[in-house]
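Input.
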Amino acid sequence: MYWNVALRSVGLWVILSLATGHLTEQEKSTIVDMHNEVRSKVQPSAAFMQKVVWSEALRVVAEAYAAKCIWDHNPELEELTIGENLFVGTGPFNVTKAMLGWFEEHVDYNYESNNCSEDKMCGHYTQMVWANSFKIGCATHLCDKLEYLDFEKVTLLVCNYFPPGNAEGQKPYESGDPCSKCPDEQPVCDNNMCVVENLFRPSEEPESEDTDAPTVLPGRPLMTTEPDAVPKEPTQVHVIPVEIGREGEFNHGYKMESVSALLVMSVLLLAALVL
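Output.
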């Protein structure tokens, strides 16, 4: 009798984990739509801005890393040539709130100087509006515990971008009249964004500005917590500074690190990005 109850409890936890630990099709659409909404309305306007599309190959990479439940960036970002934004929160996961948390960093970003206000973070926003980052894939995982962070039962969101943004010394996009510099292979202007004739069958992948350029914009985690779970003092997470945002949220933006390749299978999956 006790064994049956225990099995039912375990089964219920597995079902709840699956239900809350994976993005629904609606949530995926929300992520893409909110990125494109932000990208279409950047100020100053962008002379060239690509429309973001969903990538299952990037989702697979994000899902594999999210399952590790580590409160730090994927050490294979440079090897895989992808960008990354992270978000983690307790309580029911809200993808809209996560996207708004990243977007709200725009108030601290100065386009002309390409700098962020002192002691603020802007790397998530600049990755969101990086003109050449036109593919995105995200995944969530419900973690009992999160390595490097003293919280339990949290949802970790990982979003990967291709090509990566936040290259040193470069602005996220070139300002100008919307679509005034759309390349020949992307002649259609759709809501201030350059797209190919058939968006879902691009004949040629646009090249990034400089995928070898190092990334220097600081990445800091974004976390949503219940009121009684917010730490009283600023927290340090694996030498990456963490700060509480306006609504008790934290961000972890894109970061590049030189490490040995451990995700060989993921590299093979990413080959689909250039096909």
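The CA atoms of residues 33 and 52 lie 8 Å apart.
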